[in-house]
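Researcher: Please translate sequence to structure tokens.
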Amino acid sequence: EVQLVESGGGLVQPGGSLRLSCVASGFTFSTTTMRWARQAPGKGLEWVALIHRDGTTWYPDSVKGRFTISRDNSKNTVYLQMNSLKLDDTAVYCCALASGERGQGTQVTVSS
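Model: Translation complete:
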């Protein structure tokens, strides 16, 4: 059974930073592309980062240069370092697989 458990969310001021973690189990993590997505209130799901098995990454323009995805295959964990946070980054963030499985998510609130 695939399990994805996120942590690290919280309340942060604009310009601040947070680091999210997602611990995975139930599949071969090291060979799997991992994704982070977010969903703000009243909006659809937005992909914000992915990392392939070889370490190559992708980001949309909305977060490029501010967010960094990384992985530690020894810990079955994927991270999302978020810097220079903006009010618009407020959302529930979850990690996900291409097959559709997602974790419960962790709330990130950017507010002054």
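Researcher: Any highlights?
Model: The beta strands are 3-7, 10-12, 18-25, 34-39, 45-51, 57-58, 67-72, 77-82, 91-96, 106-110.
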